[in-house]
């Protein structure tokens, strides 16, 4: 899945409508401290359906809306659009008719978020599934925020393994294993009860 453009308006420090073209290959963002480099990564995470305000360095979701400066008043709305280039048809099959997919998230103060895919209103789940089916998303280890490398280096081996398992695409198997084990325990309990009933009847 290739991201080709990112549009922001009213998102954190990007108060004016801004469009960034993401070219093929490796993209680097350079600039002085505090110019908004991390805000760009957070915008990508947010439009993919990130719900935890903390991971966007805020205490509530409204904190992503431009909060105003000495010279400019605060905004009441923030919007981010991520344009996905689907010419290689790498998005899920239901988007096979689309060369480009535009995913938009908009938030208004105290009213929560609304999502659109190619102009149509959708649920947050639809957006999260679009990215999950393409093996990415707001929690993807491919999005490396500041300090994450240090955390990874200093992490306990078990925590580091969880990140590697996510990258290998096998973390979902743990959930299925837990479910299977719990069903097995339930079946064993039923068998024991059945044996008690059979013994009582004999
Ligand atoms: P560094 O290189 O120091 O890590 P950076 O380029 O990654 O910096 P960011 O952390 O992305 O910069 O941006 C920080 C700037 O964004 C700060 O100036 C902060 O005031 C501004 N900012 C964050 N949230 C908002 C908001 N809701 N409204 C207005 N400005 C905001």
TrEMBL record:
<comment type="similarity">
    <text>Belongs to the SMC family.</text>
</comment>
<feature type="coiled-coil region">
    <location>
        <begin position="177"/>
        <end position="202"/>
    </location>
</feature>
<protein>
    <recommendedName>
        <fullName>Chromosome partition protein Smc</fullName>
    </recommendedName>
</protein>
<comment type="subunit">
    <text>Homodimer.</text>
</comment>
<feature type="binding site">
    <location>
        <begin position="32"/>
        <end position="39"/>
    </location>
    <ligand>
        <name>ATP</name>
    </ligand>
</feature>
<comment type="function">
    <text>Required for chromosome condensation and partitioning.</text>
</comment>
């Amino acid at each position: 899945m290739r991201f080709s453009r990112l549009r922001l308006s009213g998102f954190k420090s990007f108060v004016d409508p801004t469009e960034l073209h993401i070219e093929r290959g490796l993209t680097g963002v350079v600039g002085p401290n505090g110019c908004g480099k991390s805000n760009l990564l957070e915008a990508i995470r947010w439009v993919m359906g990130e719900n935890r305000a903390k991971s966007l360095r805020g205490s509530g979701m409204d904190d992503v809306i431009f909060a105003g400066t000495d010279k400019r008043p605060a905004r009441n709305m923030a919007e981010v659009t991520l344009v996905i280039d689907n010419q290689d048809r790498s998005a899920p099959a239901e988007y096979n008719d689309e060369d480009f997919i535009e995913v938009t998230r908009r938030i208004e103060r105290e009213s929560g978020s609304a999502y659109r895919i190619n102009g149509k209103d959708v649920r947050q789940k639809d957006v999260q599934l679009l990215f999950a089916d393409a093996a990415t998303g707001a929690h993807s280890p491919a999005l490396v925020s500041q300090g994450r490398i240090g955390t990874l280096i200093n992490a306990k081996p078990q925590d580091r393994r969880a990140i590697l398992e996510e990258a290998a695409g096998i973390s979902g198997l743990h959930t299925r294993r837990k479910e299977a084990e719990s069903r097995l325990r339930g079946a064993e309990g039923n068998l024991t009860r059945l044996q008690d009933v059979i013994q009582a009847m004999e």
